[in-house]
Protein backbone atom coordinates (compact mmCIF):
# COMPACT_ATOMS: atom_id res chain seq x y z
CA UNK A 1 0.00 0.00 0.00
CA UNK A 2 2.95 2.33 0.62
CA UNK A 3 3.75 2.00 -3.11
CA UNK A 4 0.29 3.35 -4.01
CA UNK A 5 0.39 6.04 -1.30
CA UNK A 6 3.80 7.26 -2.57
CA UNK A 7 2.14 8.09 -5.90
CA UNK A 8 -0.10 10.81 -4.42
CA UNK A 9 2.54 13.29 -3.10
CA UNK A 10 4.60 12.61 -6.21
CA UNK A 11 1.74 13.60 -8.54
CA UNK A 12 0.69 16.61 -6.45
CA UNK A 13 4.21 18.06 -6.56
CA UNK A 14 3.25 20.13 -9.64
CA UNK A 15 0.36 21.67 -7.68
CA UNK A 16 2.75 22.73 -4.86
CA UNK A 17 5.14 24.36 -7.35
CA UNK A 18 2.26 26.20 -9.03
CA UNK A 19 1.20 27.52 -5.59
CA UNK A 20 4.75 28.77 -4.92
CA UNK A 21 4.83 30.58 -8.28
CA UNK A 22 1.36 31.99 -7.64
CA UNK A 23 2.51 33.35 -4.23
CA UNK A 24 5.62 34.90 -5.80
CA UNK A 25 3.62 36.54 -8.61
CA UNK A 26 0.99 37.94 -6.22
CA UNK A 27 3.67 38.99 -3.69
CA UNK A 28 1.95 37.06 -0.90
CA UNK A 29 4.82 35.98 1.36
CA UNK A 30 2.69 33.82 3.63
CA UNK A 31 1.35 32.00 0.65
CA UNK A 32 4.88 31.43 -0.68
CA UNK A 33 5.98 30.10 2.72
CA UNK A 34 2.98 27.81 3.02
CA UNK A 35 3.37 26.57 -0.53
CA UNK A 36 7.13 25.99 -0.03
CA UNK A 37 6.34 23.94 3.10
CA UNK A 38 3.79 22.00 1.06
CA UNK A 39 6.39 21.30 -1.68
CA UNK A 40 8.88 20.19 1.00
CA UNK A 41 6.32 17.96 2.68
CA UNK A 42 5.28 16.44 -0.67
CA UNK A 43 8.90 15.78 -1.64
CA UNK A 44 9.75 14.29 1.78
CA UNK A 45 6.54 12.24 1.85
CA UNK A 46 7.15 10.90 -1.63
CA UNK A 47 10.77 9.98 -0.76
CA UNK A 48 9.90 8.40 2.61
CA UNK A 49 7.01 6.35 1.28
CA UNK A 50 9.18 5.33 -1.69
CA UNK A 51 11.97 4.06 0.60
CA UNK A 52 9.55 2.19 2.89
CA UNK A 53 7.74 0.58 -0.04
CA UNK A 54 11.07 -0.33 -1.68
CA UNK A 55 12.28 -2.12 1.48
CA UNK A 56 8.99 -3.93 1.96
CA UNK A 57 8.87 -4.94 -1.69
CA UNK A 58 12.44 -6.24 -1.70
CA UNK A 59 11.79 -8.32 1.38
CA UNK A 60 8.66 -9.75 -0.14
CA UNK A 61 10.30 -10.34 -3.56
CA UNK A 62 13.27 -12.19 -1.99
CA UNK A 63 10.98 -14.54 -0.14
CA UNK A 64 8.71 -15.01 -3.13
CA UNK A 65 11.74 -15.75 -5.39
CA UNK A 66 12.78 -18.63 -3.13
CA UNK A 67 9.24 -20.03 -3.06
CA UNK A 68 8.74 -19.73 -6.82
CA UNK A 69 12.12 -21.21 -7.75
CA UNK A 70 11.52 -24.11 -5.37
CA UNK A 71 8.10 -24.59 -6.95
CA UNK A 72 9.60 -24.68 -10.47
CA UNK A 73 12.32 -27.10 -9.32
CA UNK A 74 9.72 -29.32 -7.64
CA UNK A 75 7.58 -29.36 -10.78
CA UNK A 76 10.64 -30.27 -12.83
CA UNK A 77 11.53 -33.21 -10.66
CA UNK A 78 7.95 -34.38 -10.28
CA UNK A 79 7.56 -34.90 -14.03
CA UNK A 80 7.60 -38.65 -14.37
CA UNK A 81 9.31 -38.93 -17.73
CA UNK A 82 12.55 -37.55 -19.15
CA UNK A 83 10.80 -36.26 -22.29
CA UNK A 84 10.65 -32.79 -20.75
CA UNK A 85 14.44 -32.60 -20.76
CA UNK A 86 14.94 -33.89 -24.26
CA UNK A 87 12.38 -32.25 -26.55
CA UNK A 88 13.90 -29.04 -27.95
CA UNK A 89 10.57 -27.15 -27.89
CA UNK A 90 10.05 -28.07 -24.21
CA UNK A 91 13.63 -27.13 -23.40
CA UNK A 92 13.19 -23.71 -24.98
CA UNK A 93 10.01 -23.10 -22.97
CA UNK A 94 11.79 -24.20 -19.82
CA UNK A 95 14.80 -21.98 -20.55
CA UNK A 96 12.52 -18.93 -20.79
CA UNK A 97 10.67 -20.01 -17.64
CA UNK A 98 13.92 -20.55 -15.71
CA UNK A 99 15.30 -17.19 -16.83
CA UNK A 100 12.13 -15.33 -15.89
CA UNK A 101 10.96 -17.33 -12.87
CA UNK A 102 12.59 -14.77 -10.58
CA UNK A 103 10.48 -12.04 -12.22
CA UNK A 104 7.34 -13.80 -10.99
CA UNK A 105 8.34 -12.83 -7.47
CA UNK A 106 7.75 -9.18 -8.47
CA UNK A 107 4.19 -9.92 -9.49
CA UNK A 108 2.62 -8.80 -6.21
CA UNK A 109 4.89 -5.77 -5.87
CA UNK A 110 4.23 -4.92 -9.50
CA UNK A 111 0.49 -4.98 -8.93
CA UNK A 112 0.79 -2.05 -6.49
CA UNK A 113 3.38 -0.31 -8.62
CA UNK A 114 0.95 -0.51 -11.55
CA UNK A 115 -1.89 0.90 -9.43
CA UNK A 116 0.51 3.64 -8.20
CA UNK A 117 1.43 4.51 -11.81
CA UNK A 118 -2.27 4.78 -12.71
CA UNK A 119 -2.92 7.02 -9.67
CA UNK A 120 -0.04 9.35 -10.71
CA UNK A 121 -1.29 9.44 -14.28
CA UNK A 122 -4.91 10.16 -13.36
CA UNK A 123 -4.00 12.87 -10.80
CA UNK A 124 -1.71 14.51 -13.33
CA UNK A 125 -4.45 14.45 -15.98
CA UNK A 126 -6.91 15.98 -13.48
CA UNK A 127 -4.41 18.76 -12.74
CA UNK A 128 -4.02 19.49 -16.46
CA UNK A 129 -7.79 19.38 -17.06
CA UNK A 130 -8.23 21.81 -14.15
CA UNK A 131 -6.24 24.37 -16.17
CA UNK A 132 -8.21 23.76 -19.38
CA UNK A 133 -10.11 20.72 -20.75
CA UNK A 134 -8.25 20.92 -24.05
CA UNK A 135 -5.03 19.93 -22.23
CA UNK A 136 -6.56 16.48 -21.87
CA UNK A 137 -5.47 16.02 -25.51
CA UNK A 138 -1.92 15.60 -24.20
CA UNK A 139 -3.05 12.28 -22.79
CA UNK A 140 -4.39 11.24 -26.22
CA UNK A 141 -1.10 12.13 -27.86
CA UNK A 142 0.60 9.64 -25.59
CA UNK A 143 -1.46 6.75 -27.02
CA UNK A 144 0.88 6.07 -29.99
CA UNK A 145 3.70 5.57 -27.50
CA UNK A 146 1.60 3.09 -25.54
CA UNK A 147 0.71 1.14 -28.68
CA UNK A 148 4.28 1.08 -29.97
CA UNK A 149 5.65 -0.07 -26.62
CA UNK A 150 3.17 -2.96 -26.47
CA UNK A 151 3.76 -4.08 -30.02
CA UNK A 152 7.55 -3.84 -29.84
CA UNK A 153 7.66 -5.82 -26.59
CA UNK A 154 5.79 -8.64 -28.32
CA UNK A 155 8.23 -8.53 -31.26
CA UNK A 156 11.18 -8.70 -28.84
CA UNK A 157 9.66 -11.70 -27.07
CA UNK A 158 9.19 -13.49 -30.41
CA UNK A 159 12.82 -12.81 -31.32
CA UNK A 160 13.93 -14.13 -27.91
CA UNK A 161 11.97 -17.33 -28.40
CA UNK A 162 13.10 -17.84 -31.97
CA UNK A 163 16.72 -17.68 -30.84
CA UNK A 164 16.37 -19.53 -27.52
CA UNK A 165 18.03 -22.60 -29.02
CA UNK A 166 21.10 -20.56 -30.03
CA UNK A 167 21.30 -19.19 -26.50
CA UNK A 168 21.26 -22.73 -25.10
CA UNK A 169 23.92 -23.76 -27.60
CA UNK A 170 26.11 -20.79 -26.66
CA UNK A 171 25.81 -21.66 -22.96
CA UNK A 172 26.55 -25.31 -23.66
CA UNK A 173 29.69 -24.38 -25.64
CA UNK A 174 30.75 -21.97 -22.88
CA UNK A 175 30.39 -24.76 -20.31
CA UNK A 176 32.35 -27.12 -22.55
CA UNK A 177 35.15 -24.60 -22.80
CA UNK A 178 35.28 -23.70 -19.12
CA UNK A 179 34.33 -26.70 -16.97
CA UNK A 180 37.12 -28.85 -15.49
CA UNK A 181 35.45 -32.06 -16.70
CA UNK A 182 35.81 -31.06 -20.35
CA UNK A 183 39.16 -29.33 -19.81
CA UNK A 184 41.40 -32.30 -20.62
CA UNK A 185 39.66 -33.33 -23.80
CA UNK A 186 39.38 -29.75 -25.04
CA UNK A 187 43.13 -29.27 -24.62
CA UNK A 188 44.20 -32.63 -26.04
CA UNK A 189 41.94 -32.25 -29.07
CA UNK A 190 43.01 -28.61 -29.41
CA UNK A 191 39.43 -27.51 -30.03
CA UNK A 192 39.52 -24.43 -27.79
CA UNK A 193 39.58 -21.98 -30.72
CA UNK A 194 36.97 -23.97 -32.60
CA UNK A 195 34.70 -23.90 -29.52
CA UNK A 196 35.21 -20.16 -29.14
CA UNK A 197 34.27 -19.62 -32.79
CA UNK A 198 31.12 -21.75 -32.51
CA UNK A 199 30.25 -19.99 -29.24
CA UNK A 200 30.61 -16.60 -30.91
CA UNK A 201 28.55 -17.74 -33.94
CA UNK A 202 25.75 -19.00 -31.68
CA UNK A 203 25.70 -15.73 -29.72
CA UNK A 204 25.68 -13.71 -32.93
CA UNK A 205 22.75 -15.75 -34.27
CA UNK A 206 20.91 -14.80 -31.10
CA UNK A 207 22.23 -11.28 -30.72
CA UNK A 208 21.74 -9.98 -34.30
CA UNK A 209 17.92 -10.44 -34.52
CA UNK A 210 17.54 -9.31 -30.90
CA UNK A 211 19.65 -6.19 -31.47
CA UNK A 212 17.67 -5.46 -34.66
CA UNK A 213 14.40 -5.77 -32.76
CA UNK A 214 15.74 -3.48 -30.01
CA UNK A 215 16.96 -0.85 -32.49
CA UNK A 216 13.64 -0.76 -34.33
CA UNK A 217 11.86 -0.49 -30.97
CA UNK A 218 14.13 2.39 -29.92
CA UNK A 219 13.49 4.22 -33.23
CA UNK A 220 9.72 3.76 -33.06
CA UNK A 221 9.61 4.86 -29.44
CA UNK A 222 11.83 7.88 -30.07
CA UNK A 223 9.39 8.98 -32.83
CA UNK A 224 6.30 8.63 -30.65
CA UNK A 225 8.02 10.34 -27.72
CA UNK A 226 9.17 13.16 -30.01
CA UNK A 227 5.55 13.57 -31.07
CA UNK A 228 4.54 13.84 -27.42
CA UNK A 229 7.39 16.29 -26.68
CA UNK A 230 6.23 18.54 -29.53
CA UNK A 231 2.68 18.40 -28.17
CA UNK A 232 3.92 19.39 -24.69
CA UNK A 233 5.84 22.39 -26.06
CA UNK A 234 2.66 23.36 -27.96
CA UNK A 235 0.57 23.01 -24.80
CA UNK A 236 2.91 25.22 -22.76
CA UNK A 237 2.99 27.85 -25.50
CA UNK A 238 -0.76 27.76 -25.84
CA UNK A 239 -1.23 28.13 -22.06
CA UNK A 240 1.18 31.07 -22.02
CA UNK A 241 -0.23 32.93 -25.02
CA UNK A 242 -3.87 31.94 -25.35
CA UNK A 243 -5.44 33.80 -22.49
CA UNK A 244 -4.36 31.40 -19.76
CA UNK A 245 -1.25 33.37 -19.08
CA UNK A 246 -1.14 33.16 -15.30
CA UNK A 247 2.33 32.08 -14.30
CA UNK A 248 0.91 29.46 -11.92
CA UNK A 249 -1.02 27.77 -14.76
CA UNK A 250 2.03 27.77 -17.03
CA UNK A 251 4.13 26.24 -14.23
CA UNK A 252 1.45 23.63 -13.60
CA UNK A 253 1.24 22.68 -17.28
CA UNK A 254 5.03 22.63 -17.61
CA UNK A 255 5.60 20.50 -14.51
CA UNK A 256 2.59 18.23 -14.78
CA UNK A 257 2.90 17.96 -18.58
CA UNK A 258 6.57 16.97 -18.50
CA UNK A 259 5.79 14.44 -15.79
CA UNK A 260 2.83 13.16 -17.79
CA UNK A 261 5.13 11.52 -20.35
CA UNK A 262 7.17 9.97 -17.53
CA UNK A 263 4.01 8.67 -15.82
CA UNK A 264 2.64 7.35 -19.07
CA UNK A 265 5.92 5.52 -19.70
CA UNK A 266 5.81 4.11 -16.15
CA UNK A 267 2.20 3.02 -16.54
CA UNK A 268 2.98 1.40 -19.88
CA UNK A 269 6.08 -0.35 -18.51
CA UNK A 270 4.28 -1.60 -15.46
CA UNK A 271 1.31 -2.85 -17.46
CA UNK A 272 3.66 -4.35 -20.02
CA UNK A 273 5.63 -6.15 -17.31
CA UNK A 274 2.41 -7.33 -15.73
CA UNK A 275 1.04 -8.43 -19.07
CA UNK A 276 4.20 -10.30 -20.06
CA UNK A 277 4.58 -11.94 -16.67
CA UNK A 278 0.94 -12.81 -16.46
CA UNK A 279 0.43 -13.92 -20.02
CA UNK A 280 3.82 -15.39 -20.61
CA UNK A 281 5.69 -16.63 -17.57
CA UNK A 282 2.68 -17.62 -15.53
CA UNK A 283 1.20 -19.32 -18.61
CA UNK A 284 4.44 -21.30 -18.93
CA UNK A 285 4.32 -22.12 -15.25
CA UNK A 286 0.73 -23.30 -15.67
CA UNK A 287 1.88 -25.38 -18.65
CA UNK A 288 4.59 -26.99 -16.52
CA UNK A 289 2.06 -27.62 -13.74
CA UNK A 290 -0.35 -29.26 -16.21
CA UNK A 291 2.49 -31.24 -17.75
CA UNK A 292 3.54 -32.53 -14.33
CA UNK A 293 -0.07 -33.32 -13.40
CA UNK A 294 -0.87 -35.04 -16.73
CA UNK A 295 1.57 -37.85 -15.93
CA UNK A 296 -0.38 -38.79 -12.84
CA UNK A 297 -3.86 -38.43 -14.37
CA UNK A 298 -4.10 -42.03 -15.59
CA UNK A 299 -2.33 -43.53 -12.58
CA UNK A 300 -5.00 -45.29 -10.53
CA UNK A 301 -3.30 -48.42 -9.24
CA UNK A 302 -0.85 -48.44 -6.30
CA UNK A 303 2.62 -49.93 -6.67
CA UNK A 304 2.61 -53.53 -5.42
CA UNK A 305 4.13 -54.22 -2.01
CA UNK A 306 6.04 -57.18 -3.45
CA UNK A 307 6.37 -58.71 -6.88
CA UNK A 308 4.48 -61.98 -7.16
CA UNK A 309 4.80 -62.76 -10.89
CA UNK A 310 7.14 -60.32 -12.57
CA UNK A 311 7.36 -57.74 -15.32
CA UNK A 312 6.07 -58.42 -18.82
CA UNK A 313 7.03 -56.50 -21.95
CA UNK A 314 4.35 -57.01 -24.55
CA UNK A 315 5.09 -55.71 -28.05
CA UNK A 316 6.98 -52.74 -26.63
CA UNK A 317 8.12 -50.17 -29.17
CA UNK A 318 9.83 -46.85 -28.51
CA UNK A 319 10.98 -43.78 -30.41
CA UNK A 320 12.70 -40.89 -28.65
CA UNK A 321 10.63 -37.69 -28.64
CA UNK A 322 11.19 -35.69 -31.79
CA UNK A 323 12.79 -38.63 -33.68
CA UNK A 324 11.37 -41.05 -36.23
CA UNK A 325 13.65 -44.10 -35.89
CA UNK A 326 12.37 -46.78 -33.51
CA UNK A 327 14.99 -47.60 -30.90
CA UNK A 328 12.93 -50.55 -29.68
CA UNK A 329 10.47 -52.49 -31.79
CA UNK A 330 8.00 -55.18 -30.74
CA UNK A 331 10.01 -56.22 -27.69
CA UNK A 332 8.47 -59.23 -25.96
CA UNK A 333 9.93 -60.68 -22.79
CA UNK A 334 8.98 -61.82 -19.31
CA UNK A 335 11.19 -60.98 -16.34
CA UNK A 336 10.18 -63.34 -13.52
CA UNK A 337 9.99 -62.02 -9.96
CA UNK A 338 13.06 -62.72 -7.83
CA UNK A 339 15.52 -63.10 -10.71
CA UNK A 340 18.68 -61.40 -11.92
CA UNK A 341 18.24 -60.41 -15.55
CA UNK A 342 21.12 -59.29 -17.75
CA UNK A 343 20.79 -57.19 -20.89
CA UNK A 344 23.49 -57.58 -23.50
CA UNK A 345 23.99 -56.15 -26.95
CA UNK A 346 26.25 -53.93 -28.97
CA UNK A 347 26.65 -50.19 -28.35
CA UNK A 348 23.47 -48.35 -29.24
CA UNK A 349 21.40 -51.55 -29.32
CA UNK A 350 18.81 -50.08 -26.93
CA UNK A 351 19.71 -51.63 -23.54
CA UNK A 352 19.71 -48.36 -21.58
CA UNK A 353 16.51 -47.32 -23.33
CA UNK A 354 14.84 -50.53 -22.17
CA UNK A 355 16.06 -49.80 -18.64
CA UNK A 356 14.63 -46.25 -18.84
CA UNK A 357 11.25 -47.66 -19.90
CA UNK A 358 11.28 -50.13 -17.01
CA UNK A 359 12.07 -47.30 -14.58
CA UNK A 360 9.13 -45.36 -16.01
CA UNK A 361 11.29 -42.49 -17.32
CA UNK A 362 9.54 -42.83 -20.67
CA UNK A 363 6.27 -44.32 -21.80
CA UNK A 364 6.48 -46.88 -24.64
CA UNK A 365 5.24 -45.53 -27.96
CA UNK A 366 3.52 -48.87 -28.54
CA UNK A 367 2.82 -52.02 -26.54
CA UNK A 368 2.72 -52.27 -22.75
CA UNK A 369 4.92 -52.96 -19.78
CA UNK A 370 2.97 -54.63 -17.00
CA UNK A 371 3.99 -55.20 -13.41
CA UNK A 372 2.23 -58.24 -11.95
CA UNK A 373 -0.37 -57.80 -14.69
CA UNK A 374 -0.92 -54.05 -14.09
CA UNK A 375 0.06 -51.61 -16.84
CA UNK A 376 3.04 -49.57 -15.54
CA UNK A 377 1.26 -46.40 -16.78
CA UNK A 378 -1.44 -47.02 -14.19
CA UNK A 379 1.02 -47.01 -11.28
CA UNK A 380 1.73 -43.48 -9.98
CA UNK A 381 5.23 -42.56 -11.14
CA UNK A 382 6.37 -41.35 -7.72
CA UNK A 383 5.24 -44.61 -6.08
CA UNK A 384 6.99 -46.72 -8.70
CA UNK A 385 10.16 -44.67 -8.48
CA UNK A 386 10.22 -45.14 -4.72
CA UNK A 387 10.42 -48.87 -5.41
CA UNK A 388 13.16 -48.55 -8.03
CA UNK A 389 16.82 -48.26 -7.08
CA UNK A 390 20.02 -48.44 -8.98
CA UNK A 391 23.03 -46.90 -10.53
CA UNK A 392 23.54 -45.70 -14.07
CA UNK A 393 26.47 -45.21 -16.40
CA UNK A 394 25.82 -41.45 -16.44
CA UNK A 395 25.95 -40.98 -12.69
CA UNK A 396 25.82 -37.91 -10.45
CA UNK A 397 28.83 -36.57 -8.57
CA UNK A 398 27.26 -35.19 -5.43
CA UNK A 399 29.94 -33.10 -3.77
CA UNK A 400 29.09 -33.56 -0.11
CA UNK A 401 30.80 -35.55 2.64
CA UNK A 402 30.83 -39.26 1.69
CA UNK A 403 28.15 -40.04 4.28
CA UNK A 404 25.65 -37.65 2.66
CA UNK A 405 26.72 -38.27 -0.90
CA UNK A 406 25.81 -41.93 -0.38
CA UNK A 407 22.96 -41.33 2.08
CA UNK A 408 20.85 -39.22 -0.27
CA UNK A 409 20.08 -42.45 -2.14
CA UNK A 410 17.32 -42.91 0.44
CA UNK A 411 16.65 -39.62 2.23
CA UNK A 412 14.48 -40.98 5.08
CA UNK A 413 17.35 -43.27 6.12
CA UNK A 414 20.25 -40.99 5.12
CA UNK A 415 21.15 -40.30 8.77
CA UNK A 416 21.27 -43.94 9.80
CA UNK A 417 25.02 -44.76 10.00
CA UNK A 418 24.44 -48.53 9.87
CA UNK A 419 22.36 -48.26 6.68
CA UNK A 420 24.87 -45.96 4.98
CA UNK A 421 27.76 -48.19 6.03
CA UNK A 422 25.98 -51.28 4.62
CA UNK A 423 25.39 -49.46 1.29
CA UNK A 424 29.07 -48.44 1.21
CA UNK A 425 30.11 -52.05 1.63
CA UNK A 426 27.69 -53.32 -0.99
CA UNK A 427 28.94 -50.75 -3.47
CA UNK A 428 32.56 -51.80 -2.84
CA UNK A 429 33.31 -48.27 -1.59
CA UNK A 430 34.70 -49.38 1.78
CA UNK A 431 38.27 -49.65 0.49
CA UNK A 432 38.05 -46.09 -0.91
CA UNK A 433 36.66 -44.75 2.39
CA UNK A 434 39.44 -46.51 4.33
CA UNK A 435 41.98 -44.45 2.38
CA UNK A 436 40.30 -41.09 3.03
CA UNK A 437 41.65 -38.82 5.79
CA UNK A 438 38.27 -38.29 7.45
CA UNK A 439 36.65 -41.54 6.39
CA UNK A 440 32.91 -41.20 5.90
CA UNK A 441 33.07 -37.52 6.80
CA UNK A 442 35.51 -36.61 4.05
CA UNK A 443 34.26 -33.77 1.88
CA UNK A 444 34.14 -34.84 -1.75
CA UNK A 445 35.07 -32.42 -4.55
CA UNK A 446 38.40 -30.61 -4.73
CA UNK A 447 36.77 -27.19 -5.09
CA UNK A 448 35.51 -27.25 -1.47
CA UNK A 449 37.45 -26.59 1.73
CA UNK A 450 39.36 -29.77 2.70
CA UNK A 451 37.64 -31.48 -0.24
CA UNK A 452 39.25 -34.38 -2.06
CA UNK A 453 38.69 -35.45 -5.62
CA UNK A 454 38.15 -39.05 -6.49
CA UNK A 455 39.06 -40.99 -9.60
CA UNK A 456 36.29 -41.71 -12.10
CA UNK A 457 36.02 -45.33 -10.90
CA UNK A 458 35.87 -44.19 -7.25
CA UNK A 459 33.09 -41.73 -8.05
CA UNK A 460 31.32 -44.59 -9.79
CA UNK A 461 31.56 -46.62 -6.57
CA UNK A 462 30.00 -43.71 -4.64
CA UNK A 463 27.09 -43.71 -7.11
CA UNK A 464 26.79 -47.47 -6.83
CA UNK A 465 26.71 -47.32 -3.02
CA UNK A 466 24.05 -44.59 -3.26
CA UNK A 467 22.02 -46.92 -5.47
CA UNK A 468 22.09 -49.53 -2.71
CA UNK A 469 20.61 -47.22 -0.08
CA UNK A 470 17.00 -47.99 -0.84
CA UNK A 471 15.51 -50.53 1.53
CA UNK A 472 13.29 -52.75 -0.54
CA UNK A 473 13.24 -51.87 -4.21
CA UNK A 474 11.14 -54.02 -6.48
CA UNK A 475 13.45 -53.21 -9.37
CA UNK A 476 17.19 -52.82 -8.88
CA UNK A 477 18.85 -51.43 -12.00
CA UNK A 478 22.57 -51.64 -12.56
CA UNK A 479 23.15 -50.04 -15.94
CA UNK A 480 26.89 -50.36 -16.48
CA UNK A 481 27.60 -48.73 -13.11
CA UNK A 482 30.99 -50.43 -12.93
CA UNK A 483 32.26 -49.79 -16.46
CA UNK A 484 35.28 -47.90 -15.06
CA UNK A 485 36.25 -50.68 -12.66
CA UNK A 486 38.59 -53.60 -13.40
CA UNK A 487 36.91 -56.68 -14.81
CA UNK A 488 37.90 -58.59 -11.64
CA UNK A 489 36.47 -55.93 -9.30
CA UNK A 490 33.26 -55.82 -11.34
CA UNK A 491 33.05 -59.60 -11.27
CA UNK A 492 33.48 -59.72 -7.49
CA UNK A 493 30.90 -56.96 -6.96
CA UNK A 494 28.30 -58.59 -9.18
CA UNK A 495 28.92 -61.94 -7.57
CA UNK A 496 28.02 -60.30 -4.28
CA UNK A 497 24.92 -58.61 -5.78
CA UNK A 498 23.61 -61.84 -7.24
CA UNK A 499 24.15 -63.67 -3.95
CA UNK A 500 22.18 -60.96 -2.14
CA UNK A 501 19.51 -60.98 -4.85
CA UNK A 502 19.04 -64.70 -4.34
CA UNK A 503 18.96 -64.38 -0.55
CA UNK A 504 15.78 -65.39 1.24
CA UNK A 505 14.67 -61.83 2.09
CA UNK A 506 15.18 -60.47 -1.42
CA UNK A 507 13.54 -63.50 -3.01
CA UNK A 508 10.51 -63.02 -0.72
CA UNK A 509 10.08 -59.49 -2.09
CA UNK A 510 10.31 -60.79 -5.64
CA UNK A 511 12.91 -58.14 -6.51
CA UNK A 512 14.11 -58.11 -10.09
CA UNK A 513 17.72 -57.07 -10.59
CA UNK A 514 18.55 -55.76 -14.05
CA UNK A 515 22.16 -55.84 -15.00
CA UNK A 516 23.63 -54.18 -18.07
CA UNK A 517 27.24 -54.99 -18.82
CA UNK A 518 29.49 -55.59 -21.79
CA UNK A 519 31.54 -58.12 -19.79
CA UNK A 520 30.24 -61.59 -20.42
CA UNK A 521 32.06 -63.04 -17.42
CA UNK A 522 29.67 -60.89 -15.34
CA UNK A 523 26.62 -61.39 -17.50
CA UNK A 524 26.79 -65.18 -17.31
CA UNK A 525 25.94 -65.03 -13.58
CA UNK A 526 22.41 -63.82 -14.38
CA UNK A 527 19.39 -66.14 -14.23
CA UNK A 528 18.07 -64.77 -17.49
CA UNK A 529 19.91 -63.04 -20.31
CA UNK A 530 18.16 -60.90 -22.94
CA UNK A 531 20.08 -60.17 -26.13
CA UNK A 532 19.08 -56.82 -27.63
CA UNK A 533 19.87 -56.56 -31.32
CA UNK A 534 18.39 -54.43 -34.10
CA UNK A 535 15.85 -52.82 -31.74
CA UNK A 536 14.47 -56.22 -30.70
CA UNK A 537 15.11 -58.85 -28.07
CA UNK A 538 16.40 -61.62 -30.29
CA UNK A 539 17.47 -64.21 -27.72
CA UNK A 540 16.42 -64.95 -24.19
CA UNK A 541 17.53 -67.63 -21.73
CA UNK A 542 20.19 -68.65 -19.24
CA UNK A 543 23.89 -68.59 -20.17
CA UNK A 544 23.86 -72.34 -20.77
CA UNK A 545 20.67 -72.18 -22.93
CA UNK A 546 22.09 -69.41 -25.06
CA UNK A 547 25.46 -71.11 -25.47
CA UNK A 548 23.68 -74.31 -26.57
CA UNK A 549 21.67 -72.30 -29.07
CA UNK A 550 24.88 -71.11 -30.75
CA UNK A 551 23.32 -67.81 -31.76
CA UNK A 552 24.43 -64.19 -31.39
CA UNK A 553 25.08 -64.48 -27.64
CA UNK A 554 27.34 -67.51 -28.07
CA UNK A 555 29.16 -65.71 -30.88
CA UNK A 556 29.79 -62.55 -28.80
CA UNK A 557 30.75 -64.62 -25.76
CA UNK A 558 33.31 -66.62 -27.75
CA UNK A 559 34.84 -63.47 -29.27
CA UNK A 560 35.29 -61.92 -25.81
CA UNK A 561 36.55 -65.14 -24.22
CA UNK A 562 39.07 -65.58 -27.05
CA UNK A 563 40.37 -62.02 -26.69
CA UNK A 564 40.72 -62.50 -22.92
CA UNK A 565 42.57 -65.76 -23.50
CA UNK A 566 44.88 -64.06 -26.03
CA UNK A 567 45.47 -61.15 -23.65
CA UNK A 568 46.18 -63.50 -20.78
CA UNK A 569 48.63 -65.57 -22.85
CA UNK A 570 50.43 -62.44 -24.11
CA UNK A 571 50.65 -61.00 -20.61
CA UNK A 572 51.90 -64.27 -19.21
CA UNK A 573 54.36 -64.72 -22.11
CA UNK A 574 55.66 -61.21 -21.49
CA UNK A 575 56.14 -61.84 -17.77
CA UNK A 576 57.92 -65.17 -18.39
CA UNK A 577 60.14 -63.58 -21.03
CA UNK A 578 61.22 -60.89 -18.56
CA UNK A 579 62.13 -63.43 -15.88
N1 LIG B 1 17.83 -39.03 -25.53
C1 LIG B 1 17.92 -39.59 -26.73
N2 LIG B 1 17.35 -39.00 -27.81
C2 LIG B 1 17.42 -39.57 -29.01
N3 LIG B 1 18.01 -40.75 -29.26
C3 LIG B 1 18.60 -41.38 -28.24
C4 LIG B 1 18.59 -40.84 -26.92
N4 LIG B 1 19.24 -41.69 -26.10
C5 LIG B 1 19.64 -42.73 -26.88
N5 LIG B 1 19.25 -42.53 -28.14
C6 LIG B 1 19.47 -43.45 -29.27
O1 LIG B 1 18.89 -44.68 -28.94
C7 LIG B 1 19.68 -45.75 -29.38
C8 LIG B 1 19.88 -46.75 -28.24
O2 LIG B 1 20.61 -46.08 -27.21
P1 LIG B 1 20.87 -46.79 -25.81
O3 LIG B 1 21.56 -45.80 -24.95
O4 LIG B 1 19.63 -47.39 -25.32
O5 LIG B 1 21.88 -47.94 -26.26
P2 LIG B 1 22.71 -48.96 -25.37
O6 LIG B 1 22.43 -50.32 -25.89
O7 LIG B 1 22.47 -48.75 -23.93
O8 LIG B 1 24.18 -48.52 -25.77
P3 LIG B 1 25.55 -48.55 -24.90
O9 LIG B 1 25.94 -49.99 -24.77
O10 LIG B 1 26.49 -47.82 -25.76
O11 LIG B 1 25.28 -47.90 -23.60
C9 LIG B 1 20.98 -45.16 -29.90
O12 LIG B 1 20.92 -45.20 -31.31
C10 LIG B 1 20.95 -43.73 -29.42
O13 LIG B 1 21.49 -42.89 -30.39
From TrEMBL:
Keyword annotations of the record: ATP-binding, Membrane, Nucleotide-binding, Transmembrane, Transmembrane helix
Annotated transmembrane regions: 33-53, 117-143
Membrane topology, from the record: Multi-pass membrane protein
Domain ABC transporter as annotated: residue spans: 311-559
Domain of life: Bacteria
Main location: membrane
InterPro entries: AAA+_ATPase, ABC1_TM_dom, ABC1_TM_sf, ABC_transporter-like_ATP-bd, ABC_transporter-like_CS, P-loop_NTPase, Type_1_exporter
Any GO molecular function: ATP binding
Any Pfam family matching the protein: ABC_tran
ABC transmembrane type-1 domain sequence ranges: 1-144
Subcellular localization(s) per the UniProt record: Cell membrane
SMART domains for the chain: AAA
Protein name per UniProt: ABC transporter ATP-binding protein
Lineage: Bacteria, Bacillati, Actinomycetota, Actinomycetes, Streptosporangiales
Amino acid sequence: MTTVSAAVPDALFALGLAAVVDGVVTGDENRVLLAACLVGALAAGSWLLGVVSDRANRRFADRAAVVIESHVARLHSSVATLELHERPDHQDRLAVLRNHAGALSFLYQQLFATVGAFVRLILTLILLLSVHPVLGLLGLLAVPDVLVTHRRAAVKKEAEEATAQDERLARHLFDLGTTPLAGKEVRVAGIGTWLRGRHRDAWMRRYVPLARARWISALCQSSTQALFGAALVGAVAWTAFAGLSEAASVTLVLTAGSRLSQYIAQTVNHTQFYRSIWLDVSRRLAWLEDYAAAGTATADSPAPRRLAEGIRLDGVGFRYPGTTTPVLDDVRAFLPAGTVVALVGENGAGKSTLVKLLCGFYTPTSGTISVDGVDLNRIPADQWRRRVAGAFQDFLRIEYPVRQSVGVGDLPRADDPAVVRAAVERGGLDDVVAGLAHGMDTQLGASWKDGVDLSYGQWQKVALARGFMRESPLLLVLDEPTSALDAEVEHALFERFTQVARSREDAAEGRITILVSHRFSTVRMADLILVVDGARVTECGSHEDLMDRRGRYAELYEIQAASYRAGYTTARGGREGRR
